[in-house]
Write a structure and sequence with these properties.
Strand content of chain A: over 45%
Mean pLDDT of chain B: 97
Largest sheet of chain A: 7 strands, mixed
Number of strands of chain A: 11
Number of helices of chain B: 0
Shape of chain A: globular
Oligomer: heterodimer
Shape of chain B: globular
Low-confidence stretches of chain B: none
Distance between the termini of chain A: 40 Å
Number of strands of chain B: 9
Order of helices and strands of chain B: EEEEEEEEE
Radius of gyration of chain A: 13 Å
Number of helices of chain A: 0
Mean pLDDT of chain A: 97
Structural class of chain A: mainly beta
Order of helices and strands of chain A: EEEEEEEEEEE
Amino acid sequence: EVQLVESGGGLVQPGGSLRLSCAASGFTFSSYAMSWVRQAPGKGLDWVSSITGRGHSTYYADSVKGRFTISRDNVKNTLYLQMDSLTTGDTATYFCAKIAEGYYDFWRPFDYWGQGALVTVSS
Amino acid sequence: YVLTQPPSVSVAPGKTATITCGGHNIGSKTVHWLQQRPGQAPVLVIHYNTDRPSGIPERVSASNSGNTATLTINRVEAGDEADYYCQVWDSSSDQGVFGGGTKLTVL
């Protein structure tokens, strides 16, 4: 059974940093591209970042480019999102999501999602 | 790349709900649809424009052509009440894109 479990969320001050983790199990982690998607309270889904299966290529939304870094450890089967220079606009639940097929086939759907980690940026 | 959805759609039980997703030449892209109930993670209900993942009932269907993708739910039930999102990958910018979401209310 595929499982994605996020951790690392919490309360952080504006300008601060936080690292999210997503522990994956039930599939060959290194064979699949992965993504982070966020959802601000009461708002819609917002794509944040994606990474290829081997971690060689990364992609970011304009709103987080230069501040967030996606990475993965294919030995630990874990996806990460390092978030720096956080603003109140980054307050959201962050979901990790698995691409249905392929190392880099981002056009394919997100077939599995974690339950999300809440990040609150506030002074 | 921008995907435009109506904020809300209301339908009586047993009727048909239609949710649109507008985008420039979206017919040339691969569209996926997700359902999200309150407090839950999204669930894929349509992938690759028209296909249903296993476990999704046949009364859920979709199409994609021109500048509009459409999700159709026939014989709507109370359990269909949720937010629905269309999603594509924009290869010109190498970014994922979600529509703003449509709240389906079953009257």
